[in-house]
């Protein structure tokens, strides 16, 4: 049995017990380097565990013993994270800490991760307006974290850390890696690079220097995944020499006429060309090799929100009819979708 301390009012110490029988594989939501996440149910008022299907649904993260620092540091971090409240951050409801067992209790996100919706076969593709909305939500969450009040660098942004509620509102999860941001010119130097290959900014991988601009780069990669429907790094297609999504997409992003060729085919051509080109331009800025030349998340958010407000943009007709509108010198029939990057060939425009 565990004592659950509620974040909403730690002083009142609303304490209740979460039964260990909640940790059965039927309710396992996922596993990661940090431990496992289970689905659980608690009473809305007392936070006492209730029968599956009653009360409020929560996600209970059970941390592996080796995945946290000393108890004091862990507690400080949890309490700090519990104070960060924003509509685009997954809410930390409470925590438990008994001997070697550390649990974090979060709000449950019924639609799961963005990764599942973009890449898993058999899942209904998400529409273009929803993708733009998800990008805006993530940008809002990051802008809040980078803001003076919070001053947190997210550090490990990727599609699997973006969770969706029942209305496809996106929220950032997994704050274990977040750190206070740098003050002045100091940047964090970390001996252990924790970002994910394919998403991590090149200067962070090379030097361990961490700044808010490292998050901006990772955001650019997630934005590129939303555009293309392809993974940042597809392990199924080969080993370490595999081209990343960024390397593959770069030449297309630099040419507004070619950029539409990287668009996710699952969109079926149902998107505004101007919006897609505008998002691609934001991606290119975020992925700048020099962090100083990347925009801040607040600037990125402004660019994306402007897109969302200009509703008068023409919609692209379905691909079948596209070639009727392309009578200029470009002899490609409509928008040509390039093949995913393969190990054998570097250029994929044929």
UniProtKB/TrEMBL annotation:
GO terms for cellular component: plasma membrane. Residues 321-335 have a biased composition (Basic residues). It holds the Pfam family PK_Tyr_Ser-Thr. One of its GO terms (molecular function) is protein serine/threonine kinase activity. Mg(2+) binds at residues 161, 174. Residues 310-350 are annotated as: Disordered. PROSITE patterns: PROTEIN_KINASE_ATP, PROTEIN_KINASE_DOM, PROTEIN_KINASE_ST. Residues 23-307 form the Protein kinase domain. It catalyses: L-threonyl-[protein] + ATP = O-phospho-L-threonyl-[protein] + ADP + H(+); L-seryl-[protein] + ATP = O-phospho-L-seryl-[protein] + ADP + H(+). SUPFAM superfamilies: Protein kinase-like (PK-like). It is an enzyme of class 2 (transferase). Its main location: membrane. It is found in: Cell membrane. Residues 341-350 have a biased composition (Polar residues). ATP binds at residue 61. Keywords: ATP-binding, Cell membrane, Kinase, Magnesium, Membrane, Metal-binding, Nucleotide-binding, Serine/threonine-protein kinase, Transferase. The active site is at 156 (proton acceptor). InterPro entries: Kinase-like_dom_sf, Plant_Ser_Thr_Prot_Kinase, Prot_kinase_dom, Protein_kinase_ATP_BS, Ser-Thr/Tyr_kinase_cat_dom, Ser/Thr_kinase_AS. Belongs to the protein kinase superfamily. This is non-specific serine/threonine protein kinase. It comes from Citrus sinensis (Sweet orange).
């Amino acid at each position: 049995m565990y004592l659950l301390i509620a974040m909403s009012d730690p002083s009142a110490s609303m304490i209740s017990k979460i039964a260990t029988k909640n940790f059965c594989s039927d309710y396992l939501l996922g596993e990661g380097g940090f431990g496992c996440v289970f689905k659980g149910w608690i009473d809305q008022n007392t936070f006492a565990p209730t029968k599956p299907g009653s009360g409020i649904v929560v996600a209970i993260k059970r941390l592996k013993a080796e995945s946290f620092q000393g108890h004091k540091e862990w507690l400080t971090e949890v309490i700090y994270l519990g104070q960060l409240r924003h509509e685009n951050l997954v809410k930390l409801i409470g925590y438990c800490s008994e001997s070697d067992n550390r649990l974090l209790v979060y709000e449950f996100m019924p639609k799961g991760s963005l990764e599942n919706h973009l890449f898993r076969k058999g899942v209904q593709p998400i529409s273009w307006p929803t993708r733009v909305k998800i990008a805006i939500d993530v940008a809002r969450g990051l802008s809040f974290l980078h803001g003076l009040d919070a001053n947190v660098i997210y550090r490990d942004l990727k599609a699997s850390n973006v969770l969706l509620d029942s209305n496809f509102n996106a929220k950032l999860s997994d704050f274990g890696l977040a750190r206070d941001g740098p003050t002045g010119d100091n940047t964090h130097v970390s001996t252990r690079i924790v970002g994910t290959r394919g998403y991590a900014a090149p200067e962070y991988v090379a030097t361990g220097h961490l700044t808010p601009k490292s998050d901006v780069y990772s955001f650019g990669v997630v934005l590129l995944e939303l555009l293309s429907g392809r993974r940042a790094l597809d392990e199924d297609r080969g080993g370490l020499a595999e081209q990343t999504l960024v390397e593959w997409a770069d030449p297309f992003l630099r040419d507004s006429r070619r950029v539409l060729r990287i668009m996710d085919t699952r969109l079926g051509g149902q998107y505004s060309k101007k919006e897609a080109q505008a998002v691609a331009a934001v991606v290119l800025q975020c992925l700048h090799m020099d962090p100083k030349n990347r925009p801040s998340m607040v600037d990125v958010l402004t660019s994306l929100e402007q897109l969302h407000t200009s509703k008068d943009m023409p919609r692209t007709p379905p691909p079948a009819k596209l070639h009727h509108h392309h009578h200029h010198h470009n002899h490609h029939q409509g928008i040509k979708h390039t093949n995913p990057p393969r190990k054998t060939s570097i250029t994929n425009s044929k």
